[in-house]
Amino acid sequence: MAGLGVNIDHVATVRQARQTVEPDPVWAAVEAELGGADCITFHLRQDRRHIIDRDVRLLREVVRVKLNMEMSLAEEIVQIALELKPDQATLVPENRQEVTTEGGLDVAGQSRRIRDVTRALQNAGVTVSAFIDPEPDQVRACQEVGCDAIEIHTGRYANAWLLHGSEGRDRQVRSALQEIRRAVQAGLDAGLVVHGGHGLTYRNIAPVAAIEGFTEFNIGHSIVSRAVFVGLRSAVAEMKRLIQ
Ligand code: PXP
Question: For residue 85, what is the domain's CATH number?
Fold first, then answer.
């Protein structure tokens, strides 16, 4: 059964909107653990838009489940990861203008840099995953550069799900699910651990969670959105129930 990684970036986004000290993403990590999270995920961006360096240090001390750091390939961030030693690093693309991570990492297109970063992290005891679009070439590239895991970008499926009432919506959802299924299988065939994430919600998680082969889902926005109304502990517990 797949585990749940809770991405706490959005708690930090609310704090940074006022440049103040609350809500604290470190408290959020503790609440998420109490709700049954198997992993706490954060993204230390170069622009420090949400998670800041102080959070990262405290998260490393406080989090008792797996700590997963989403990170770009920027040298500054790689150095921080090497010192911090999260349990897992997930390599993601980063673009200053984006609202959220928009697409998967082009592993095939920058394999030399990714191989070097992957080796350095692994030598520091960090498991390395790469966030990729559900494309067989990208899965193969992850295997070639020595990644331990992949995280399959579920954004196309999530976007198709949102096309309520529009013609072709069911066909698009089915085709996106099929693409994910193939990518999971390609990952397993390549000997990689397979995670999934992006745009997953309480309404759309079930068909993805039913695909065999996933080890972990990383979910942020939907859980933090629900937590505003029911509290983070309950929101996490409910998502865990749906995955199970
Ligand atoms: N996985 C990765 C690699 C991401 O970059 C993000 C977004 O930060 C997520 C999962 C979570 O996406 P969402 O907030 O849409 O659940």
Answer: 3.20.20.70
